[in-house]
């Protein structure tokens, strides 16, 4: 699905080779500051590499329309963002941004239940706690019906129980639909439990001058 | 014909008593502003006297070229003033767009005002051309200055929000809609407010001028209404042009935020 070749970004990223296969769940694992978020942003053209190539479905990402790409390769950023408006507005805004069809209230209420968010659709979203906002942002991305999900530490603000609920929900949805996911995580346990493959930053990052 | 009151030089000098009072108060209260007050008063006096001579010359030699030169100088001054008054640093592209929207917005509104609404005769009659161009340009300048600050501030403080929208597949236009709307609001609000206060809180320059020159209040008011509408048009067109092109300078051709 993705293929990385001699990718360089500033002095942060230097990856010789990396293949991402369709229909699998990957965990990107590495210590803080090792460049996980930076690398993740290359997969949907939020950042463009200085050198080297990254392809999506055999086409160079640099040549693809970034907006269309991001509608297929959707991303949840590291900081949960809540937009002005209600819980409903916040869930639907992604579909509106991507010019996709909005879904019925029933679907949204169902999703809130699955996210263990005991909130009303009409509640103002900025009143939610940090962990609730993270789940709201998570739900917004889940609704996007994408090919690939790039998730940057999606459970960082959650307690262990809620984390399990969210990860179960996410992996079940991705697997049932046969989609692909690349997830950054701070937890080795999560990586081992939920991913098909763990990508260790220490394994893929090359030191300067070791490029063959 | 005109019943404009003549003011002697001595009468004018007596008006400076206000500054003397101010200076006395400032000295008495030990506020260290004497220098600034004196300089501001001197500058105001000298600048206006010089402008007076220039206008006298232009009014006496009613030539198209002089009116055109004056409006060009005003536009250049206004554009540089926007650059100077904006506290944040401006990109090259944004500067170009400021200049473009300022000049084309004010010129469009002005020419419409000149040829369709009031129909000066001749169209470059400096007695109308210069003050009205000045008012449109001055107000658009304030509007764009506010719009520029608000736009840059918006992109800086809401960077994460814009990026979250892009990550969901939003085109830059949609991702920055909230910021652009807010910038439009702050740019246009003073103009809207001044329409609301018109005639009650202030009798603005145009009307004061027309009344002082001996015209009846109703004529003055017709002019004032027209000029207020002209100002609103000029401000909105220049601000809309600025925002329409301006937000794009915050994105590169990969639809990434350049901050
Ligand atoms: N746009 C950027 N330009 C330069 N340096 C950056 C940029 N973004 C992040 N960094 C730096 O790159 C390194 C990796 O950051 P990041 O990808 O956020 O790491 P992680 O997500 O693994 O914690 C950090 O040292 C960070 O300060
Ligand atoms: Mg990170």
UniProtKB/TrEMBL annotation, chain A:
Residues 2-211 form the ABC transporter domain. Pfam families: ABC_tran. Keywords: ATP-binding, Nucleotide-binding, Transport. InterPro entries: AAA+_ATPase, ABC_transporter-like_ATP-bd, ABC_transporter-like_CS, P-loop_NTPase. This is Putative ABC transport system ATP-binding protein. It comes from the Bacteria. It comes from Gracilibacillus orientalis. Gene3D superfamilies: P-loop containing nucleotide triphosphate hydrolases. GO terms for molecular function: ATP binding; ATP hydrolysis activity. SUPFAM superfamilies: P-loop containing nucleoside triphosphate hydrolases (SSF52540).
UniProtKB/TrEMBL annotation, chain B:
Keywords: Membrane, Transmembrane, Transmembrane helix. The keyword Nucleotide-binding does not apply. One of its GO terms (cellular component) is plasma membrane. Pfam families: UPF0014. Its main location: membrane. It is found in: Membrane. Belongs to the UPF0014 family. This is Putative ABC transport system permease protein.
